[in-house]
Amino acid sequence: MPYSDLLSLARSTAVKAGELAALRLAEGVEVAASKSSPVDIVTEADREVEALIRSLLADARPLDGFYGEESDAAESESGLTWIVDPIDGTVNYLYGFPHYAVSIAVVEGGPDPLSWRALAGCVFNPATGELYTAAEGSGAFLGEKQLHVASTVPLSQALIGTGFAYDSGMRAQQGALVAQLLPLVRDIRRMGTASLDLCAVAAGRLNGYFERTLNPWDHAAGALIAREAGATVKGRGDAAPNHEFILAAEHDLALLLEATLAELGD
Ligand code: LIP
After folding, report:
1. For ligand 1, what atom is nearest to the CA of residue 166?
2. Which phi and psi angles does 152 have, rounded to 5°?
3. Burial group, residue 215, by CB count within 10 angstroms (0-12, 13-18, 19+)
4. Could you say which of 52, 104, 146, 225 has the lowest number of CB atoms within 10 Å?
5. Atom in ligand 1 nearest the alpha carbon of residue 85
């Protein structure tokens, strides 16, 4: 399998990082600081887990670039860059809600989702032990089980995941949009962890997912996993997923969901 060495490194690193995150959670975590808003928080565990990931990756591949949520970016000398969210779903983690993940992806190029080519990715939920993986062209897996996106359904039968920004003004807009969408679909799920939402689409646990204002580290691995499971993963129109918008679903539903969101003013 191409990129098997990269995927193996992502997988082993994610498991070690997840074990550390779970250990720190068991010891008790507190807010270390807030970032873009009072509810956009970071814990010391986020920082410690990212430092571990960064160290393991640098030991194995010192010339690769690094782009993580909690530390400074490092330029790539190899042409590859690691895109890392040490604890995606930080608020879930802080509250002890068992739905958070270590998300690690390696891309050809730099940390720009509009231009990178994702090669391998891993999303690990330490609370459940679920380990999602994918390498470009080799399919997506939950453990050893190959994943396939759910078959298409009418929008009225679709279970749709989404999430909200940390900015209160943006949240008001997103809440108003969800209020309009809710009667048009089976139901809405807001689970708080973009990487796991994208893996849920890959696993057929969600029919679709969309969100705005995500950072590259939130979606780099999950988008590859969803795409390798057969989902359409996109930005608006022909754009690649990006900060402004990401949507993942089986192809026909993806186009219908995007058109519906546009009609609702998103
Ligand atoms: C989170 C995302 C989630 C989004 C949250 C937050 P974080 O990332 O995974 O989808 O709705 O607002 O951005 O901040 O926990 O790494």
Report:
1. 12
2. -65, 150
3. middle
4. 146
5. 16
Query: Across the chain, which distance is largest between two alpha carbons, in Å?
Result: 51
Report whether 2 contacts 110 (CB < 8 A). no
**Per-residue pLDDT at 30:** 81
pLDDT digits (tens, 9 = 90+) for 88-139: 999 999 999 999 999 999 999 999 999 999 999 999 999 999 999 999 999 9
What is the pLDDT confidence band of residue 163, given thresholds at 50, 70 and 90? Answer: very high
- Which atom of ligand 1 is nearest to 93's Cα? 15
Cβ(105)–Cβ(117) below 8 Å: no
Q: Rounded to the nearest 5°, which phi and psi values hold at 68?
A: -125, 165
The proportion of the chain whose per-residue pLDDT surpasses 70, expressed as a percent, equals 100
What percent helix, strand, coil does the chain show, rounded to 5?
Answer: 40, 25, 35
The model's pLDDT over 176-194, given as tens digits with 9 standing for 90+, comes to 999 999 999 999 999 999 9
Domain residue ranges of the chain, discontinuous segments joined by +: 3-146, 155-263
The secondary element (H helix, E strand) that includes residue 15 is helix 4-27
Give this prediction's pTM.
0.97
Domain 3-146 belongs in CATH node 3.30.540.10: yes
Measured from CB, residues less than 6 Å from any atom of ligand 1 are 69, 85, 88-90, 163-164, 166, 192-194, 211, 218
In angstroms, the CA 139 to CA 249 distance is 16
